[in-house]
Design a protein that fits this description.
Strand content: 15-25%
CATH superfamily of the largest domain: HIV Type 1 Reverse Transcriptase, subunit A, domain 1
CATH topology of the largest domain: HIV Type 1 Reverse Transcriptase, Chain A, domain 1
Number of helices: 11
Distance between the termini: 56 Å
Number of strands: 21
Radius of gyration: 29 Å
Shape: elongated
Structural class: alpha+beta
CATH architecture of the largest domain: Roll
Length: 472
Amino acid sequence: MQLGDVSLEKVNTSLYGFAGEVVHPRGMVSLPLMMGVGVTHKTCMLKFLVVDVPSAYNVILGRPTLNAFQAVISTYHMKIKFPTPGRVGEVQGDPLQSRKCYVEAVRKGQKRTSDEAHKGVPPSKKGKDTCAEEAPRGTGALAKVQPAEELLNIKIIPGHPNKTTRISSQMSEETKGRNSPMFATQRPSIKPVKQKKRHFELEKDKIIQAEVDKLMAAGHIEEIQFPEWLSNVVLMPKPGGKWRICIDFRDHNKACPKDFYPLPLIDQLVDSTSGWELLSMMDVSQGYHQIMLAPEDRKKVSFITSTGTFCYVAMPFGLKNAGATYQRLVDKIFRPQIGRNVEVYVDDMLKLNPTKCAFGVRGGRFLGFMVTLTGIKANPLKIKAILDMEAPTCVNEVQGLTGRIAALSRFISKAAKKSLPFFKVLRKAKTFEWDAPCQQAFEELKSYLAGLPLLVKPFPGDTLYLYLSATS
């Protein structure tokens, strides 16, 4: 504001954030603040604390300002009203400017947020570790949930006496049998297939063996001598130069009938989770591996490595019906709560991964969207991915651009029209040409993304407008 330090009054007061972070002001300055225009304007002398922190906002007004103006604020209407000698004055917010500030805040806070997410949280006074990622702020110790009846310890993995869990002593034998195994169903008319072993270089063999040792130690696989089906290991590259270990179950999946159990619609899940004051985000640790296979079906999900043949004891990833089986299970577990205070999607429940959980937050990322009390926002990372892009120089980069646009299509009006120049480039894949219309559409897209709308879920009884588009 070009006032200089000479205008600052010294203060000994520190500012404390919600999580306890401390900001030391450089000083205090008294300035006149005018709200409104014409006969409805009002001016008050106010004291402002000056801080040196990165922010998309020049001034933040708090309760002292609202009290001085006797103002009433409506965040829903983006409007402030206050009494004046003439009549009621008002200040109307600018939605476009607000969205630009939001995007700018995302840009400024992106690196700081990323750094904090990887630093972790020091141990608490009691010596227990807290969650490093999105730990709940301002919460005390939570009392452990204790069952109110006698429990029985049962083994969940044969041959591993230390792998146990507890169930109700009142559970019937029928219920035990119904909830114990998952069957690897297949068509009896199809003959088993044993794939010929694939050979890997020494370094990849070491990676595969390390994963096998890890699964053996966890009790998820065991050695087998006479498998019915036999599949190969597949290595898939991951970001950061790492590898994901998968099993080639393609032959097995051809023999399995399709389980048509429906998965929830992502848009409906996102709509149902927005508008709540507090949310708890829970992520599973190796969710599929918490479902045990029936002993007679384990030899059907076997694989081969350079050191031997193994079969899964728990449900593996890659099976044709694994997703439907898992979704059916969690739907049964949470059926009384789904739609009321819980939403579940594929692997977002069961055994929790504490480093990926956040309890009592006011918003967060859910299935690729930012869900908050006020509505549904686009994921800032997906916005940033396009804003940081240079103009494509080949077909693959154009395909990447259209894929990123598709991920944000719910927030982009007339997304197909805005993407048309890019699809024209893809039609001429043999002669790549990024012409002036493409560059103009690219720049207009970036400008549009700087002001994406905040979506709200539809409420029962509201009037909905249907927009139709037709071409010749």
